[in-house]
Structures are given as C-alpha cells and as structure tokens.
C-alpha cells in the first residue's frame, strides 16, 4: 500500500515510500529494543529516540503504543521478569529429586540463564528500577515467590529462599569478580546449602 502525499515544494502529488499500515509486531519490537538500549546504556540514559532508533520505528510509534517512557520501561522489565522466571522454572521442572534439583540450581547459576552478561546487566537495572516503581516491585515479588515455589518442590522453604538468593548473588559477584567461581566451586556451595 502506498500513501499519497503533497509535495511542499510544487504542490504536486508524489508517491511516498511504502507505509506499513498494519504492523502487529511493532509494539513488541519497541519492547525488545527498550531492553537492548537498557542493556547498552542503562535506564538513566534510555530515551524515546534511542529506543525508536533501535526498533527502527518512527519516534511517534512509541507514544502511540505507550503513555510514557516509564510505561515502556515497565513493560520491558515485566517481559524480562517473565522470561527469566520461565527459564528458571523450565530448568527446575527437569528435576525429579533433590539431587537433580541441586544440579539444576548449579546449571542456572553457571549456565546460560544467569551467567550471560546481558541478563546480568538487565537484572541490575531491573532491581534498581523496581525499587522506585511499585508495579515492577510487585512483579519482582511474584518472580521471587515463583522461584521459591519451584525450589520448594525439593527443599524446605528456608533452603529454597537461600538458594534463590544464592542464584542471583553468585551471578552478580561472578560478573565483577577477578576470580569468578567455577562450576565445581558453585556445586560445593550449593551442596552445603542444600544438603539432602
């Protein structure tokens, strides 16, 4: 579909570039681009312009789909929390006893769920943002509850809570430590906390 526009110079009609009148993926591209911008620049430096450029959409699209920059950030962080929680649950669902659950916890910490730098950067930004934005804070609480419930299939509530904190804590420390813990060391720590 082509859109006809008036030329400002000569008053004649010209055919403009092809316009996407129905772009159902645009809103999702904006959310994905917001996460990419946050990962690269941090929340404090994230702007409508940077998100629009990353999503390759007109700047006006952002205000069409979202009421404010805070709305975009909230939506992006809600998506991040949902994806991270789903990956966590999926890995734990493969466990069928406390020993395999311990291995799942080690995989979560040392594997691609938490060891990936982009995930860690976004998590730092998410925690800082959630501390000042109650809707996201509520989602974070739900995420922690879901994680603990998944762990509680195999461990008592206090151990589940300790493992949940350990998962994120080791990930954070490993991201900046000059001598990050390797998988073997992580396994020893998990075993000490989750004695079965």
Q: Would you give an account of this structure?
A:
- The chain has 196 residues and is mainly alpha-helical.
- The chain folds into 2 domains: 25-66, Homeodomain-like (Arc Repressor Mutant, subunit A, Orthogonal Bundle), CATH 1.10.10; 69-196, Tetracycline Repressor, domain 2, CATH 1.10.357.
- Helices cover 67% and strands 3% of the residues.
- It has 9 helices and 2 strands; from the N terminus they run ββααααααααα.
- The chain has helices spanning 26-41, 48-55, 59-65, 69-93, 98-110, 117-130, 134-151, 157-176, 183-193; strands spanning 4-6, 13-15.
- A two-stranded antiparallel ribbon has the order 1-2.
- A hairpin with a 6-residue loop joins strand 1 (4-6) and strand 2 (13-15).
- Helix 5 crosses helix 9, helix 6 crosses helix 7 (134-151) and helix 7 crosses helix 8 (157-176).
- The longest helix has 25 residues, at 69-93.
- The chain is elongated.
- The model is unreliable at 1-19 (pLDDT under 50).
CATH class of the largest domain reads: Mainly Alpha
Number of helices: 9
Helicity, as a percent range: 55-70%
* Secondary-structure-derived class: mainly alpha
- H/E series: EEHHHHHHHHH
CATH architecture of the largest domain: Orthogonal Bundle
Gross morphology = elongated
How are the strands ordered across the major sheet?
A: 1-2
Low-confidence stretches: 1-19
- Would you tell me which CATH topology of the largest domain applies? Tetracycline Repressor, domain 2
Q: Which sheet architecture does the biggest sheet show?
A: 2 strands, antiparallel
């Amino acid at each position: 579909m082509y859109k006809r526009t008036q030329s400002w110079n000569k008053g004649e009609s010209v055919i403009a570039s092809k316009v996407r009148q129905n772009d159902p993926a645009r809103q999702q591209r904006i959310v994905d681009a917001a996460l990419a911008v946050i990962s690269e620049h941090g929340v404090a430096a994230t702007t409508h312009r940077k998100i629009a450029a990353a999503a390759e959409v007109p700047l006006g699209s952002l205000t069409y789909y979202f009421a404010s920059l805070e709305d975009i950030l909230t939506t992006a962080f809600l998506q991040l929390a949902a994806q991270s929680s789903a990956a966590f649950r999926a890995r734990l669902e493969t466990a069928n006893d406390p020993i395999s659950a311990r291995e799942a916890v080690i995989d979560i910490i040392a594997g691609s769920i938490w060891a990936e730098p982009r995930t860690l950067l976004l998590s730092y930004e998410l925690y800082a943002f959630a501390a000042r934005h109650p809707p996201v804070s509520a989602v974070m609480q739900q995420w922690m509850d879901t994680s603990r419930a998944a762990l509680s299939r195999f461990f008592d509530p206090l151990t589940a809570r300790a493992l949940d904190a350990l998962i994120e804590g080791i990930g954070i420390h490993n991201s900046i430590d000059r001598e990050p813990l390797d998988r073997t060391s992580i396994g020893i720590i998990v075993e000490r906390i989750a004695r079965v």
